[in-house]
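REQUEST FORM: STRUCTURE PREDICTION
Request ID: SP-0412
Submitted by: Lab K.M.
Chain count: 1
Length (residues): 155
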Amino acid sequence: MSALPQVREASFEPMAGPWLEVVVQVEQTAYEHPWSLINFEDALKSGYQAQVLVADGQLLGYFVAMKGVDEVHLLNITVTPAYQGQGWARVMLDALGVWSLGQGVQWLWLEARVSNLRALQVYTAHGFQRVGLRKKYYPGAFGQREDAIVMSLKL
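STATUS: Completed
RESULT:
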């Protein structure tokens, strides 16, 4: 398997049309407990902010966020496994922050699995602070449940 070239330029597009199928495929490869097509379709029908990050026709990543009264809740952010480690999560978090400020909100919120050390490191480096713990929030292996760390970022 050859290494993918370092991507230097990308753009955001709405998560719609053929991108939705690609997003679901990436989701299936990226997670043990992935979102389903129905989860993504429901998010889109609800009017959530859902964007894909693309370069040269390739999906680099995507995010889905829900706007509240004075906050935005990040529900899903994923970098396509082949493009991880290149800074694309930071790009998507920055874009979400800019969009959120444009919506007049003050805070970004998210949950992350306690076992997802890589994501926790990315969020912490981006300025998110740990503010709580949700016990047994996520489905886990063998019918078990996994705790979630609640994090927030003041914009």
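NOTES: The longest helix spans residues 88-102.
Reviewed by: T.R.
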